[in-house]
Amino acid sequence: MNAIDTSIDSAIRAAASAIVLENVSKSYDGTTQVIPPLDAELRAGEFTVVLGPSGCGKSTLMQMIAGLERVSGGTISFGARKVQDLEPKERGCAMVFQNYALYPHMSVFENIAYSLKVAGMPKPERVERVEAVAKMLGLSDLLARKPGQLSGGQRQRVAIGRAIVREPGVLLFDEPLSNLDAQLRHDMRMELAELHRRIGATTVFVTHDQVEAMTLADRILILNKGRIEQFDTPKAIYHKPASVFVAKFIGAPPMNIVPVTGDGKVLRLADGQVLVECPVFGDYQLGIRPEDILVGEGPIKAGLRYREDLGSHAILAADLGGNLLRIATPFGADIGTEANLSLTFPPLRLHLFDAETGRAIPGAFSAQ
Amino acid sequence: MVENARSLNLVASAVLFLGMLYILGPLYLTLTTSTQSYEFMLRNGLVWYPGDQFFTNVIRIFSETRIPQQMANSLVVAVGDALVTCVLSFISAYALVFFPVRWGSVVFASILATIMLPLDIRVITTYQVASNVLSPINALLDIIGLNGLIAGVFGAPVVLEWSVLNTHFGLIAPLVAHGTGTFLFRQFFLVLPKDLVKAARMDGAGPIRFLFDILLPLSRPSFAALFVLTFLGGWTQYLWPLVASSTPNMQTAVVGLARLAPDMEGVMPDFPLIMAGAVVVSIIPLVMIAVLQRYLVRGLVLSEK
What we know:
- Chain B: Belongs to the binding-protein-dependent transport system permease family.
- Chain B: It is a multi-pass membrane protein.
- The complex is a heterodimer of chains A (368) and B (305).
- The N and C termini of chain A lie far apart (55 Å).
- Chain A has 368 residues and is an alpha+beta fold.
- In chain A, the strands form four sheets. Chain A has a six-stranded mixed sheet with strand order 6-7-8-3-9-10, with helices on both faces. Chain A has a five-stranded antiparallel sheet with strand order 13-12-11-14-19. A four-stranded antiparallel sheet of chain A has the order 2-1-4-5, with helices on one face.
- Helix content of chain A is 28%, strand content 33%.
- In chain A, α4 packs parallel to α6 and α5 (123-137) crosses α6 (152-164).
- Chain B has a single domain, classed as Orthogonal Bundle (MetI-like fold).
- In chain B, 74% of the residues lie in helices and 0% in strands.
- Chain B is built from 16 helices and no strands.
- Chain B has helices at 6-34, 38-44, 54-64, 67-98, 104-116, 123-131, 135-143, 146-154, 168-176, 179-191, 195-202, 207-218, 220-236, 239-244, 253-259, 271-304.
- In chain B, α4 (67-98) packs antiparallel against α15, α5 crosses α10 and α15 (253-259) runs antiparallel to α16 (271-304).
- Chain B is flat, with a radius of gyration of 25 Å.
- The relative contact order of chain B is 0.15.
- The model of chain B has no long low-confidence stretch (mean pLDDT 87).
- Chain A binds chain B through residues 63, 66-68, 87-89, 93-95, 97-105, 114-115, 118-119, 162-163, and chain B through 193, 195-196, 198-205, 209, 213-214, 217-218.
């Protein structure tokens, strides 16, 4: 790493600012709210992934942070600055778009340098900055080419270069990997993680891909219909989902959710089968991850419907009192062709959710 | 080709050949006639073989007729028409596509409607307006009754008058407002990636910078295509220059060509001279097409996607 590289790194690291959203809301027609008032604090230098199904408002949220959409209410601060009424260029943030949005008629150099040119930076300085960024991203040999002559991964890197050349304190990514094929996506994920470690910009990354979210994020913000379902580390999101929505959204295959009824001592299925001891009354939803179910000896009976051997493990689809239950077992587990499975649900691996709100009830099983 | 049958191929070729004959036959006759002398034509009529008087005829065009000056008029009209149409279309399409224009679709529809109202249909009203550009204001003053008031106070109503007939401006202005160009640019802008605008905004480029730095360079093929099309339209325009220009030194080359045939009955027009004139007048648009034809195709193809 040479001296110039370090200066860009440290400039971005120094500019990285926390993003604070207070009461931010968005409505296009004044009646239906795409984003109801929402509060969140993204820490300085943190890599935050905004995850949610399509139409959940995650792109709108990002565009409001970027300044491409106006907020209908509330405030957005970068550090101590209130930015919600500023133009994008005044906010000190940069964005990488889903389909790169490179300027097709400009060379790679011109693409990266354009924002500096608009800002009126003198040419020698511009050249120096662009070359430093190109070196960092391995684009030095491609500076004279047009975007049309580049591969998908190279275009992606140019788009990133264009974003970081201004040394933004906030870096925004709008589903940047969704146009790449599986292998390239994996490589770019690695590159992005390395880049973030190096430059340390406050990063917001919007995606609907849970793998990207789990691997890249310091913290994941899960959005559902404009509301924050959970905002926590990947580990916490996986192991302590705050709601049925989160539990079902993260994990492949997703968590099993079965409706149960508590009589103060045990939880039962609708058909009366006892699943686990738990001193609660009323209707609940019980969740357990496919890989947490133990197959073999056990009190719980389920009928095997289908099995898929995936090499590293096998996925079983079973019928538990009318509910579909997915079970992940180590490959080759000796279950033969038995139609009836005996299962154990380890209590510490169980999640209990309110039947109506879907919110998690913490400590339901750890108390035992 | 959907099918590859031999007989179908033959028929298709025959149709093409007939079409070519239909177009090229008269053109060929133009060329051969332009190479004969007037006397030769009077004796033999129009013939299908070339003679040796072509350059004599061309020299006569330049020395005895007003065609050279009229070609200059044509050039001014065609280039003016093409340039102004390009700029107007580009700007109006820019406004329609990239800004939330209230009633944008209504505006666009009314722009498109001009395609269905070519100059040939509205030539009389256009002539009226051109003969007095301010006549709509006069009419307005009459309608709202202000003129009656003025006539009562000052003794005479206000009658404003400004004629643009027999001027280059008058020849160009009614031609430039045409929906085709707006449509062409609009379609081109619509297929551009939406994120391009956002990316430019993130880079700090305002609407004007975006227009000049991003949109204009990208639109070059569409510009070239529209320029060629309107240039040709302006060059070959007949009806409007015919009515709007009253003196020979304001007429365009196409009108001048038609005027080469004498109005008197019983006199055989000097067809070799006229045909030589037609050849000379065709050269500029031909060169234009030859130079810009690859843009022409690219611009039109891009707009269709």
